[in-house]
């Protein structure tokens, strides 16, 4: 496989380049971003990210606490979720739920890092949701449902 030239930021290059290079580069970026977003649907991968030290800091802070990483995830979330032409390629739409929680909730990032059983719990909730044919319920929806039952 031909190695693609890299740029400082993974973004499409201008169309003034040769057509075949422009197309190949954009396909590469599309695939890279889609695979990363798809990976965010996996509780195991989120746990891995939360336990991986951030390479841009000298201390052992997890990658998920890096502002640069969180901005990149927020960028991908905005671009891929809001553009129907891109969103239709996402096979696991709950990756958007996890990405949004990762970006917006320090509590979520802390739970992923500290709670040893989070990965198994999240995986079981996903399997239950798939069996029902729905998206995993949020805690707020679960508490509202419990209040209606009483």
Automatic annotation (TrEMBL):
List keywords of the entry alphabetically.
Activator, Nucleus, Transcription, Transcription regulation
Q: Name one GO biological process term.
A: regulation of DNA-templated transcription
**Superkingdom in the source lineage:** Eukaryota
UniProt GO cellular component terms: mediator complex
Family annotation (InterPro entries)? Med31_sf, Mediator_Med31
Map out region (Disordered) in residue numbers.
131-150
Cellular compartment(s): Nucleus
On subunit structure and binding partners, the annotation says: Component of the Mediator complex.
What the protein does comes down to: Component of the Mediator complex, a coactivator involved in the regulated transcription of nearly all RNA polymerase II-dependent genes. Mediator functions as a bridge to convey information from gene-specific regulatory proteins to the basal RNA polymerase II transcription machinery. Mediator is recruited to promoters by direct interactions with regulatory proteins and serves as a scaffold for the assembly of a functional preinitiation complex with RNA polymerase II and the general transcription factors.
What family does the database annotate? Belongs to the Mediator complex subunit 31 family.
Q: What is this protein called?
A: Mediator of RNA polymerase II transcription subunit 31
Question: In which organism is this protein found?
Answer: Acaromyces ingoldii
């Amino acid at each position: 496989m031909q190695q693609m030239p890299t740029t400082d930021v993974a973004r499409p290059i201008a169309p003034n380049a040769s057509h075949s290079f422009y197309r190949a580069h954009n396909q590469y970026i599309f695939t890279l971003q889609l695979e990363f977003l798809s990976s965010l649907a996996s509780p195991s991968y989120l746990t891995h990210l939360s336990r991986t030290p951030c390479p841009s800091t000298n201390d052992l802070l997890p990658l998920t606490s890096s502002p640069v990483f969180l901005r990149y995830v927020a960028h991908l979330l905005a671009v891929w979720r809001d553009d129907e032409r891109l969103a239709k390629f996402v096979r696991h739409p709950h990756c958007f739920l996890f990405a949004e929680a990762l970006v917006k909730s320090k509590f979520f990032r802390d739970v992923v890092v500290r709670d040893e059983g989070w990965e198994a719990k999240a995986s079981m909730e996903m399997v239950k949701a798939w069996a029902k044919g729905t998206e995993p319920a949020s805690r707020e929806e679960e508490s509202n449902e419990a209040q209606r039952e009483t």
